[in-house]
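Our working data are protein records whose layout never changes between entries. Getting from the letters to the tokens is the skill we practise here. To make this concrete, we reproduce a full record directly below:
***
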Amino acid sequence: QVQLVESGGGLVQPGGSLRLSCAASGFTLDYYAIGWFRQAPGKEREGVSCISNSNGSTYVADSVKGRFTISRDNAKNTVYLQMNSLKPEDTAVYYCARRRNYCSVHPPAFGSWGQGTQVTVSS
């Protein structure tokens, strides 16, 4: 069974850092894109970042560019999101999701999702 499990969320002060992990099981990353999305209360789910093994492409949203970095460890079948210089507006539930071959910024394009991990940026 395909499974995606997020971890690494928590409470952090503004300006702090967190590293989120997305551990994949039931498949390998070879032919898939893994995207990070977030959803704050009262807002739509938005694409944050994505990485594809199929064509080597990456995507980073303008709102987090220069602060967030996506990476993967194929040996561990895990994708990471390093988040630096965190702001209160980054507070949200963060999800990872799987899509065949290529990246997308649209949640409906992703067929498998994790349960999410809460990130709260507050003093």
